Amino acid sequence: MEYDLVIIGTGTAAMVCAMRVAKAGWRVAVVDEKPFGGTCALRGCDPKKMLVAGAEAIDAKQRMTGHGVEGDVRIAWPDLIRFKRSFTDPVPDKHERRYEEAGIATLHGTATFMGPNRLCVGDREIGYRKILIASGARPIPLAIPGEEYLTDNEGFLELPSLPKRIVLVGGGYIAAEFSHIAARAGAEVTILQRGPRMLTQFEPELVGWLMDAFDRIGIRVITDTTVNAIRKRGRAYVVHASGEGGPIEVAADLVVHAAGRVPAIERLDLEKAGIAAENGKLKLNEFLQSMSNPGVYAAGDAASNGPPLTPVSSHDAKVVAANLVDGNHREPDYKGVPSVAFTLPPIARVGLTEAEAIEAGLKLRLKCERASDWFTARRVAEAVYGYKTLVDEDTGRILGAHLVGPHADEVINIFGLAIRHGLTVEDLKTTMFAYPTGASDIGYML
Ligand SMILES: Cc1cc2nc3c(=O)[nH]c(=O)nc-3n(C[C@H](O)[C@H](O)[C@H](O)COP(=O)(O)OP(=O)(O)OC[C@H]3O[C@@H](n4cnc5c(N)ncnc54)[C@H](O)[C@@H]3O)c2cc1C
Ligand SMILES: NC(=O)c1ccc[n+]([C@@H]2O[C@H](COP(=O)([O-])OP(=O)(O)OC[C@H]3O[C@@H](n4cnc5c(N)ncnc54)[C@H](O)[C@@H]3O)[C@@H](O)[C@H]2O)c1
């Protein structure tokens, strides 16, 4: 069979690009070796946030205890997983139907290149004019003894029961979010983080305040510590790590990979199609097109051109679809991509960090404050609340916004809108926000 476009993957990037290109009359096929839907819908954002809903109930109870709420609340893990499945289980069929209704061929199996215009999917050979590599990311190989004992994000989000002692290897997004779910479901959680602090993608002051929430629920965070082996001991594990204070050992019933993700391109046999990659990353031009094979584009986590987040996968896919259908003319623009780690409370960022703004030599007006005594925090008895805002001194434009605390995950989008569309402090201060909401604090943050 011959197609105008074959897309490797069926995640966010694949869906967005396939629909647009098929609408232009191209014969399109999508391929996946896993059930259709990709990481976000099946193994990432959405199932994770279904579990966060359970943790939110515990969190609210704990905060409001002594303020008029009493009684026992606990997570019944198998029921919470069943609740999650009520969303995830129908996804593959739904997605497959959407492709079929749009006239897009759906192929199951592992895709590997056989030559410049041939792809092998399982035992079928497929011809194409153009390819989109939207194969996502995979956990970074750690190359340590006992690596095979690690459970990945997919395994964690499917656990039939929650083990008592959980160790997370790494201290970024996944460790932060999974630890907050697991601790509220009753597990003893330890995070072993190589970096000097948790969540290095976020502002240090805000992460510092957020650590109060980690302490409150008994998550043990050990920083400046690198995991270098995992050994089996009976039915449990011992995680070996080395840090500033020397070697340490932590016993665990479950060890979770939270040490970063890299583009999933290693199994594609790229060289057979003349597709250049360097250090595990595709070599792409400004149009997200392969620098060595013009018939090949990439988007989302596989392209690793912008931050590995769902809105970026979607944005890349729109760029590639436009370039495929009308010739290369669009370049991705990652200005104002908001990002949230869904801890309880959440932490969020958009635009430049303070360090990035200083590095860029910008003239800054900066405000940074812990705001535990503001109404937004006090109403829900949450002591973790604060912000950092960065404004261009000359133009008044918002350059960056960083929030931690109640509603940070929603309010960050308003700052995102401001940054993406060049709004100024004056624009935001003269906007009326419903009161009292998280957004009604924006004026005071600027
Ligand atoms: C636990 C977790 C939580 C996350 N939470 C958030 C969040 O809250 N917000 C956010 O913005 N982002 C989040 N992310 C990141 C987000 O999920 C990704 O950025 C996004 O899903 C990437 O989409 P994609 O289309 O690029 O790739 P994917 O959705 O990963 O799709 C790639 C698909 O390609 C398939 N594939 C790979 N290789 C082959 C092959 N050789 N043959 C056939 N098929 C193949 C895979 O099976 C997969 O289905 C999270 C990620 C994880 C892991
Ligand atoms: N809410 C969200 O948007 C969300 C949630 C989950 C994942 N994601 C995406 O998925 C990507 C991967 O997430 P992640 O949490 O795995 O990676 P991450 O890059 O956020 O954090 C990984 C951390 O692991 C540490 N590390 C690496 N090797 C180690 C070792 N041997 N021992 C101890 N620590 C080690 C690193 O220092 C790093 O800080 C993220 O970059 C993010 O874009 C996003």
Automatic annotation (TrEMBL):
Annotated Gene3D superfamilies: 3.30.390.30, FAD/NAD(P)-binding domain
EC number: 1.-.-.-
Protein keywords: FAD, Flavoprotein, Oxidoreductase
Entry-linked InterPro entries: FAD/NAD-bd_sf (IPR036188), FAD/NAD-binding_dom (IPR023753), FAD/NAD-linked_Rdtase_dimer_sf (IPR016156), Pyr_nuc-diS_OxRdtase (IPR001100), Pyr_nucl-diS_OxRdtase_dimer (IPR004099)
Cofactor (UniProt): FAD
Family: Belongs to the class-I pyridine nucleotide-disulfide oxidoreductase family.
Protein name: NAD(P)/FAD-dependent oxidoreductase
Organism of this sequence: Croceicoccus esteveae
